[in-house]
UniProtKB/TrEMBL annotation:
Keyword Transmembrane assigned: yes
Record-annotated membrane-spanning stretches: 6-28, 40-59, 65-84
Organism: Streptomyces yanii
Protein name (record): Uncharacterized protein
Keyword annotations from UniProtKB, A to Z: Membrane, Transmembrane, Transmembrane helix
Superkingdom, taxonomy of origin: Bacteria
């Protein structure tokens, strides 16, 4: 399969992904108005879609597939690590909220 066909497939995927990355941009722009876990999830979404877009651009240039794969793997690792940090942060936020409610209900 040629690089152009792969790039076209990734481009179509990236365009259809606006359902996820546009709300993520809004969450990041909101800053401190959103919980930390939500901002981390938004950063993970943008990292994932950004690495997909960069992969598409690299497929259109004359670079080897191993270099393209390296960029895709680096983007995946970044996305997964941000999502993991968001999950840990969400757990901490839930425990803090439970403690607040427990103190109110005493």
């Amino acid at each position: 399969m040629s690089h152009g066909v792969l790039a076209l497939g990734v481009a179509v995927l990236c365009v259809s992904g606006n359902v996820w990355y546009l709300p993520a941009c809004i969450d990041l722009r909101a800053g401190q108005d959103r919980p930390r876990s939500r901002r981390l999830v938004a950063a993970a979404v943008l990292a994932g879609w950004g690495s997909a877009a960069l992969t598409m651009l690299l497929l259109l240039t004359p670079v080897t597939l191993s270099a393209v794969a390296l960029v895709a793997v680096a983007g995946t690792i970044t996305t997964v690590s941000l999502a993991f940090r968001a999950r840990l942060s969400r757990g901490q936020e839930q425990r803090e909220e439970e403690a607040r409610w427990a103190a109110l209900l005493r």
